[in-house]
Amino acid sequence: MAISTKLEMRQSQSLVMTPQLMQAIKLLQMSNLDLVSYVESELERNPLLEKTDGEANEGNTGDTSVTSDRISDNPDGSSPAGEEPDAGDWMQNDLETGSEAIASRMDTDLGNVFPDEPGVPASPDPALLKTGDSYKNVSSGGASEDYNLEAFVAEEASLVTSLEEQMHFALSDEADRLIAGHLINSLDENGYLYLDLEETAEQLGVGPDRVEWVLNILQTFEPAGVFARSLAECLKLQLIDRNRFDPAMEAFIDNIELLAKRELSALKKICGVDDEDLTEMIAEIRALDPKPGSVFGSSLVQPVVPDVFVRPANDGTWAVELNSDTLPKVLVNQTYFAKVIKTARNETEKEYLTDSLQTANWLAKSLDQRAKTILKVSTEIVRQQDGFLTYGIAHLRPLNLKTIAEAIGMHESTVSRVTSNKFMATPRGIFELKYFFSSAISGTSEGDTHSAEAVRHRIRQMIDAEDPKAILSDDTIVKTLKNDGIDIARRTVAKYREAMKIGSSVQRRREKNSNI
Question: Where is the RNA polymerase sigma factor 54 core-binding domain (predicted)?
Answer without folding.
Answer: 149-336
